[in-house]
Sequence to fold (103 residues):
Amino acid sequence: EPPSQRHPRSETPSPTLPEIPPAELDLTFSFDTIMGFSKISEPHAEKVQKRASNVMKLTQENEKLKEELKAMTARLEAAERKRLELAGRSQQQQSNTAQPGRS
Fold:
């Protein structure tokens, strides 16, 4: 017996979906209202623009500081390598002068 005959579709109850209320659409928006140019939202838009400008400035400053930190880290690592190199040379010279004639 094929699987489709074992379980007829009429036995499976369809799920009951909640009724969706009809939308109350107000289609009287003006172009300015849709685009956000209303006089009421001007102060809000100005605040948002100012905040966006501040964020942009802070982002640029952050990038600049990251570059400075990277350069300083590179200089510090180079200085540390140089210090270790000089310390190694100094230690080598001390061991050579402390043991004369051992060649």
User: Anything to note?
Assistant: The mean pLDDT is 78. The radius of gyration is 38 Å. The first helix runs from residue 3 to 6.
